[in-house]
From TrEMBL:
This is Aminotransferase-like plant mobile domain-containing protein. It comes from Arachis hypogaea (Peanut). Coiled coil: none annotated. One of its GO terms (biological process) is meristem maintenance. Transmembrane segments: none annotated. InterPro entries: AminoTfrase-like_pln_mobile (IPR019557), MAIN-like (IPR044824). Residues 3-92 form the Aminotransferase-like plant mobile domain. It holds the Pfam family PMD. Signal peptide: none annotated.
């Protein structure tokens, strides 16, 4: 389940000047969800915010206890493995052609530079 990024942006882009503490927390949760969905754990649509992050932002005080770096690295490796597997047609994220070449050529024994030199 996802929500369009534009809805989040229109609804939560400007904090009201008279916002109380609970309103600030709501806007903070929305901003963090946008960051998680578009920057840290992006997918190929790049315009949707996934609601899978709701349980993680429910308690802002607990968010610092999660290992976000490890999770992001695991997500990246998962995406790279899916790209390397030619049988998978539904990739989780857009992957730069450099990474596709990196995975493809490293599986063949090395990376080839433009001058023809093979490293590996």
């Amino acid at each position: 389940m996802t929500v369009h990024f534009t809805w989040f942006h229109e609804r939560f882009s400007v904090l009201p000047p008279d916002a109380n503490e609970e309103t600030v927390r709501i806007y903070a949760r929305a901003y963090i969800m946008m960051l998680l969905s578009t920057q840290l754990f992006g997918d190929k649509s790049a315009n949707r915010v996934h609601i899978r992050w709701l349980p993680f932002v429910a308690n802002l005080d607990e968010m610092g206890r999660y290992s976000w770096g490890s999770a992001a690295l695991a997500w990246l490796y998962r995406c790279m493995c899916r790209v390397a597997n030619r049988n998978v047609t539904n990739h989780a994220m857009k992957v730069d052609s450099f990474f596709i070449n990196l995975v493809t050529h490293s599986n063949r024994g090395g990376l080839q530079q433009s001058n023809g030199t093979v490293h590996g």
